[in-house]
Amino acid sequence: MPIPFVDLQAQYRSIKSEIDAAIAAVIEESAFIRGRYVERFEEEFAAAARIPHCVSVANGTDALYIVLRMLGIGPGDEVITSASSWISSSETITQAGAVPVFADIEPDYFNLDPLDVERRITPRTKAIIAVHLLGQPADLPALRGICDRRGLFLIEDCAQAHLAEIAGRPVGSWGEAGTFSFYPGKNLGAYGDAGAIVTKDPGLAAKCRCFARHGADAADKHNHIMEGINSRLDGLQAAILSVKLPYLEDWTRARERHAANYNDRLSALPGVVTPKVRPGARHVYHIYQIEAEQRDALQRHLTGRGISTARHYPVPLPFLKAYSRFGSTESDYPVAAAARGRILSLPLYPELTEAEADVVSEAIQTFQTASARSRG
């Protein structure tokens, strides 16, 4: 049988009765916009994230944009973010009126390199967006220290890092705010777009909530304090997320077990580098990414065996056509540039069976061993 990269149907089948009941309840009550299901999920996710305030929004991209705007970032400002991420991490900076400034990544962890961040700070820098790529926390102690010394805001893009932590503290708790995506394929995924903002600052939470609700007063939706946007988590998605949330820790442990099994099988193979985990961090393995010397040939080999793989993110952000105006070269971001031809993401999701994971590992072992033998 083919092995998919992710199997959302398997997850649905495992909790089908609960999901179906939650959807039916929302429809029965016509609780489609705001209401008790949304409020309940906000409370539950704040508790799970161990951060006091949660503002639900329509998606993770909106979450970043809203935080930037409510921190007062706009024209004339610069915001530093990772050269390796999904475009939401940078396009929201431009949408807020500021200028994205990219910094290179660490060779071992694929997250922002604090040393390169420091080199790119200018008098116009107002914030750093730290992306916890693949489920691995960025070096938050170092980045928080930079922000404190330089008077900058720290925003955490936690879209791939539900329940990740570092130095005993959860992601999202180190910055002024953390933003989450609940896109269907995330570790905690809705059945459509959904997102959230978490923060320890009640004032910032109130501003974000107001801006996301057309700038309306919390007590009177017809009294608009400011111009805002329409970014609301709907009742159906909130109810679905509330069903899934109690399972998230067990699902995360399953991801960790699969990652450990892959590491055991693949770490000694010639031409393969398995993921490194930052000391003191919990990597939640939204994506299990290896580096392979013959990545393209390996991917073709796995495809031929019915094993789905992916490349996250094959073109670093500075090299996209969308950012050609900056004239970036590979020498500007050497680590991100070097990684682009080596990275390969393997199937990893809670419902993956040990037998399926063994098939993946064996296929990689067969290819790498044959390749090493042919090179003599």
Detailed description of the structure:
The protein is of the alpha/beta class. It has a 7-stranded mixed beta sheet with strand order 1-9-8-5-4-2-3, with helices on both faces. Helix 2 packs antiparallel against helix 9. It starts with 7 loop residues before the first helix and ends with a helix.
Distinctive features:
alpha/beta, 7-stranded mixed β-sheet, 13 helices
> Low-confidence stretches at least 5 residues in length (pLDDT < 50)?
none
Q: Provide a count of the helices.
A: 13
The overall strand count is 15
H/E element sequence? HHHEHEHEHEHEEEEEHEEHHEEEHHEH
Termini gap: 34 Å
Strand ordering within the main sheet: 1-9-8-5-4-2-3
Radius of gyration: 21 Å
Largest sheet: 7 strands, mixed
State the share of residues found in helices, binned by percent.
25-40%
Which structural class should the secondary elements be placed in?
A: alpha/beta
Task: Give the quaternary arrangement of the chains.
Answer: single chain
Task: Provide the β-strand percentage band.
Answer: 15-25%
Shape: globular
Look at the structure and give the mean pLDDT. 96
